[in-house]
Structures are given as C-alpha cells and as structure tokens.
Amino acid sequence: TALAPNDNDTKAGLMAREAATSVSRMAYVRATPFGPTRNQAVGDGDVAMQFRSLTQGNTATCGLFDYPATPFPSQCFVRLEMHGSVVGSYRSADGVNWVLLCDQDTASWPGGRLVDNLQVGLAVSRGPQGASTTATAEFRQLLTSEQGPLPPTITSIPDQTIDEDKSTAALPFL
Fold it and tell me: Tens digit of pLDDT for each residue in 50-59?
C-alpha cells in the first residue's frame, strides 16, 4: 500500500467484514502516513489492526506499530489471515518477511465468531480533517493463499460516506 498524506488520520489497508455496511463486524489491517500532511498535520506513520467485535459497536485497535522516523518505507505491505476463528494481521517492509501485529480469537467476541464467508476488500479513508475530499492509495500484489494473483473486481460500492459525497454510483476500477 502506498498512501498519499492527506491527513494524519488517513488510512489504507485490507478489510474483511461480515456485510457491506458501515457498522458491520470487521477486521482491518491499515497504515497511516508519516510526516507532514496536506492539511499541515503530522502523520504518525503507523500500522495496526482495527476490529469491531459487535455489530454497531465501537472499533478497537491492537498491534500498533510506529515506523521509526528514518527510514520510513515508501510502501507498506499488509496481510490479513483467518485460521478457524482467529484473525491475524501482519506487516512487512518488503512483502517477504512478515511480522505479526495482532491476532484476535473472534470466538471470544461478544457477537460470537466471525462468519466464514467474509467480504474482503481494499479500504481507504481520507481522515476527518483531510485537506482533500478524497484519499489516494495504490494497492499492488493482491494475492489469496488459495488462488495466487487475484484480478481486482469491484461489482458495486454502497454509499458509506459521511456527508461529503452522496453519490451512490458504482465506481469503475481502472
């Protein structure tokens, strides 16, 4: 993931959720920008797993890793895995050597174990104070453990914006 520094809270990563709603139970491994951002804030440059264990519940964070100021990678590799009821999140500087950020046993969540047929996708958030109304992230090397390289396909995107853009049109993948 390569992420434009729109806001210190801009995020990009890989998300798995039970439903295509903004309040769905989910697991999300994400990165934030480092250094000066377009809105004059300073990004933390971190990678972490966020999750929502209960539908309409709060989002929690675990496995927070702050990259050191120098050198900060121009790209960040993230991985999300599910083995039984356990969801694991990983980071890598080179896409080869992986470090566990956090794992969560969803069987212990208040809403119970995550379903087996999760919706997996790429997630980007511009942050609440972003200088631009959009966020830009570049995703490469999309892989699944069972199928190898996966051609990205977007069939539809439900409107899950916060008063900035009320467009409900599906976005084309270029």
Answer: 999 999 999 9
Mean pLDDT of the chain: 76
78 φ, ψ (degrees, to nearest 5): -130, 150
Token pair for 157:
């995107």
Q: Please state, in angstroms and rounded to a whole number, the distance separating the CA atoms of residues 134 and 151.
A: 24
Query: Which two tokens mark 110?
Result: 């208040």
Residue 45: CB atoms within 10 Å: 21
DSSP 108: G
What would the DSSP string read from start to end of 119-155? EEEEEEE--TT-SSSS--EE----EETTTEE------
* Residue 134 structure tokens: 């959009």
Position 106, amino acid? T
Contact present, 6 and 136 (Cβ < 8 Å): yes
Spell 79-100 as b/e; 16+ CB within 10 A means b.
Answer: bbbbeeeebbbbbbeeeeebee
Residue 143: exposure state from Cβ atoms within 10 A (0-12, 13-18, ≥19): exposed
pLDDT 10s digits, 19-57: 988 899 999 998 887 777 777 777 777 889 999 999 999
